[in-house]
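On clarity, I found the account of how folds are encoded harder to follow than it need be. Since the whole study asks how a given chain folds, the encoding of that fold should be made plain. For the editor and my fellow referees, an illustration may be useful. An entry of this sort, consisting of the sequence and the corresponding backbone structure tokens, reads as follows:

:::
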Amino acid sequence: MKALVIAFGLAFLIRYFLFGSYIVDGPSMKPNFHTGERLIVNKLLYDIRAPKRGEVVVFHATQDKDFIKRVIALPGETIKVQGDTVYINGQPLDEPYLKEVIEQAKQAGRTYNDLNAPELKVPEGHVFVMGDNRSDSTDSRMIGPVEFGKVVGRAEIVFWPLADIGRIH
């Protein structure tokens, strides 16, 4: 009985303080994440350091809803989104996780992103996040930069479905 109590206690502590699971809901992170995928989220990492550009994070968008998005700009940086190009401090951002879909859109004679963002300086203690599916994502272009305190953690690994296990782009 004692071993069971300890095991459940440890499981609770790990789940509550260190790692959590998150289910992707909606098309905003396509083509890299899909509805129904289940992720392990590292909750401890951002107590140690700030989020970095390119990391996929889960954050509290509202009291009842968490979003999954990619960190695009960091505190103090100036961001501008124009067509398929994101500019950080006036320089184009390399986004290897979107190269293929942007190229496909160009070959079809269109842009991948149809929601631009005017130039904005990211405040201290915030990150600017965007979904990978730029034309179908509610992100910092609409809701503004996200406070560090609202970031739950970094997506570490896909654990379901089995065909996608381990894949984080």
Remarks:
- The domain at 22-164 is CATH 2.10.109.10 (Umud Fragment, subunit A).
- The first strand starts at residue 19 and ends at 23.
- The mean pLDDT is 84.
- The chain has four helices and eleven strands.
